[in-house]
Amino acid sequence: MFATNHKAMKTILSFLLLIFTATLSTDIQAQPDKKEWAIALHGGAGFVSKDMPEERKKAYYAALEEALAIGEEILKNGGSALDAVEQTIKYLEDNELFNAGRGSVFTAEGKNELDAAIMDGKALNAGAITGVTTVKNPISLARKVMEESRHVFFAGNGAEKFADETDVERVDTEYFKIQRRYDEWKRANKQTGYNLEKLENNSWKMGTVGCVALDKDGNLIAGTSTGGMTNKKYGRVGDVPIIGSGTYANDMVAVSATGWGERIMLNVSAHTLAAYMKYTNSDLKSSMDYLVDEVLNPKEAGFIAVDKHGNFSMRTNTGSMFRAASNSNGKRVVAIWED
Ligand code: ASP
Asked: Which helix (H) or strand (E) holds 249?
């Protein structure tokens, strides 16, 4: 009797041990590739000198950290990538260090004209606005366009009318103006506007903001917001609000661009990365390398992207890009220069 019980007990114990070991090894094997969420953001690409005053450098790093923490918190707690992207970009728009929202660059006529876009890759839906002058947080208006209109892209007065209809906050045009941007504009050549020569003599400093994220439900969202380029001509629309150029997401990847808008636009850049990835079955890293090294010319642009596996990639060919990223595996980066 005792011997039979003992044998049965031994069998049960070995069975339990087997299950326990199997569970453990599944977890261990699954862990390295399992990224429940991921986020990447940029605060503009350009030619930022490493001799930047220490105080200023610190301020940029602190802002990037803070912006990243906002998105991370939302995603860690099971929030949506849409909320993470909107809230992260809102913070950057409100921060004067960046060329989006308050602190946007001046147009040739001394105004601030803002562009923004947001795209939901899984739903393949997007919202974009251009040339707004009184919308405090353009990214929130872009989200409203995506969620509450039958359209994708609103311009100028129409966009502002839609802001009133959807209770998006509007402010006086003075709100966007800060002294540093005004001085930059005064220094810029008002006659010729921006040109390649200027890009090369280091006067081209960006601050456009963008964010891409993957959430626990597998949603991929891309968002970008900007004041455009210093001294831009009346009515100029950049790459940012043009879906597929500065902002794009599908069910594989979410991408946000920064840099010389015309060049980004002419190469339909964000969509090019996504299409290359899809049609050549390439991973995120090689798709990003293809875009930055083979499609764009040197000194033109930078990009951030997150794929459906929670990998992120951030690259620029301009020497510097304010950027930060992290994922649920604990990988975390906050950086400005290439090294
Ligand atoms: N791409 C933006 C534009 O051309 C500028 C930037 O990225 O800073 O409007």
From this structure: strand 247-249
CATH architecture type of domain 35-337: 4-Layer Sandwich (3.60)
Q: Which residues are catalytic?
A: 208
User: Rounded to an integer, what distance in angstroms lies between the CA atom of residue 62 and that of residue 103?
Assistant: 17
C-beta 101 within 6 A of ligand 1: no
Q: How far is the CA of 239 from the centre of ligand 1 (A)?
A: 7
Q: Would you say 302 and 261 are in contact if contact means Cβ atoms under 8 Å apart?
A: no
The per-residue pLDDT for range 261-278, each reduced to its tens digit, is 999 999 999 999 999 999
Measured CA to CA, the distance from residue 329 to residue 35 in angstroms comes to: 6
Nearest-angstrom CA–CA distance, 240 and 97: 19
Containing 132, the helix (H) or strand (E) segment is strand 125-132
More confident residue, 219 or 48: 219
d(CA 89, CA 191): 32
Rounded to whole angstroms, what are the CA distances from 1 to 8, 10, 12, 37, 109? Answer: 11, 14, 17, 55, 98
From ligand 1's centre to the CA of 37, what distance in Å? 27
CA atoms within 13 A on the CB side of 19: 5
Structural domain spans, the chain: 1-31, 35-337
Scanning the structure block, which residue is given the tokens 């909320």?
Answer: 83
Question: 113, 194, 260: which to mutate for ligand 1, most atoms within 8 A of CB?
Answer: 260
pTM of the entire predicted model: 0.88
- E strand or H helix that includes residue 222: strand 220-226
Furthest C-alpha separation in the chain: 102
